[in-house]
Amino acid sequence: MPMPERVQYSSTIEPLVQFVEDTPPSEIINRTLEKLRAGLPLQTMLTASALAVTRSADNPPGHHGGPLHPLAGLYALSHLVKRLEGQGEERFLPVLQHVALSNKHINDPVTGPFQLLKFEPLKFADFDAAKAAFLMACSRGESNKADHIFQWLWQNVEPIKAFDLLMSVAIPKNNIDDHYFVFPGYTWRAIQAGFLDKQYLPLLMRPSVRYAARFPVAPPQPELDALIEDNKLMERVTRQQSGDDETVAIGRLGKNIGQVEEFAEIPVMIASALRRGLSLDGAGEALSIGAAGLFMRSLGGNPMDVHLHTSINLRRYLISLDGLNLRSKLLLLMNWHLGPEIRSTATRMEPPGAQPDMAEVAALPERSQEALLDAIQHSIYNQPPTDWSQVTNLGLMRAVPEVKETINLATQYMQKGYDPQALIARLAEIVCHDNFTEMHAFKHHNAIVEEYRNTREAWRWMHLVCGAQAAAISFGKNMTVYEQYLDLLHAA
Predict the structure, then answer these.
(1) Count of structural domains, the chain
(2) Which domain holds residue 453?
(3) Is 160 helix (H, G, I), strand (E, B) or coil?
(4) Shared-domain flag, residues 278 and 195
(5) What's the rounded Cα separation, in Å, for the pair 269 and 261?
(6) pTM for this structure?
(7) Which tens digit of pLDDT belongs to each residue from 120-176?
(8) What are phi and psi of 279, to 5 degrees?
(9) How many angstroms separate the CA atoms of 273 and 283, rounded?
């Protein structure tokens, strides 16, 4: 039996991949910046970074480390790079953040050294045989075997058919950790959006296939099964796209979701609306409005607790995806609240209507658009520093009271009817400082932008307020990449 070899890339990208793998962490920012200044296309650098962390960093035991966040964050980060066009060297910052994170995990003893090996796929007579083998491997936690099986699937069936099978395993695992479906979902989305060449699909999906197939198996969800069965949703849900005729129903459902005291009420509300004829896309939009309302009510101070938005953003994409089966779409709508990050938020909530405080918003002084943008930025930049000696559990962190000032200012901005694109641009610049959240800040920023654009006029403002709120919570936690960049900028 020949010795296994690690995955190799084409000669056009291999040297750049090796650069990300082999450069010492102390030099990676400086040397990457040199390449970008010399004219290396930003997306080429991001592709090399993604390929490097896929090949040379193992899946972590949890969800922090390895290829998970560099791959899951690539879709949002690539949009952020586009958003910063015309901003000079600031557009390099997201790329530097990605390369630094990939390089960090490649050199982390938790996830490296590691080599992704080449191998021949297992052989199957047809899709049904491969599907049965994959589901059996997943039931046993045989992640390596699942990887072998999927190499055959990518070669022999339509990619969407293989992806649908993968997500049928990944989506129910949301109850354990929503990264099980976020990882393959956002990696797929980055490739389908054209940020990565589709030739890399079978390779870049390998870590997420192995991740989704590992133990533990998805826990039973009898309450959701009962909602689907009792409401006969598999037969009654026939409408995919929303329309103007659903505006009132979507707004009502979104408002009600945003005001719940018990998150377990949400799937019951959604199932009822679907039974009455609400479209799948309409239910997704209502859940997005509700998620924004709940996020604004949240007292959480963990910068990574942004899954209320990032999770619904991905769900809306998947719900609209041709080729994803109806049961998976129904589960996406009804198990949103079961992700651990979202469940933890339920324990730290203001009462309905308490945040934003509209009386405090009304009492704010009048400002021009530019002055109000500066006030929002000043509020974010001047949040009290975190005393890390007092933090024993990130998940228990509470937002400082000063975050409410940012929320109120952003609410005033949107109430004034000022240019939303100017606020988006300002927030884009701010989130580039972050390297604490392993791409969460980038993913949340892109999620609120997309949800703003894909939500009806009456409720879309909430998403941009949530973007300012999240920026205030995450800013300043760790900005070493940005600080090194500033040093290099001044030295240039």
Answers:
(1) 4
(2) 358-386+398-484
(3) helix
(4) no
(5) 13
(6) 0.96
(7) 999 999 999 999 999 999 999 999 999 999 999 999 999 999 999 999 999 999 999
(8) -70, 160
(9) 8
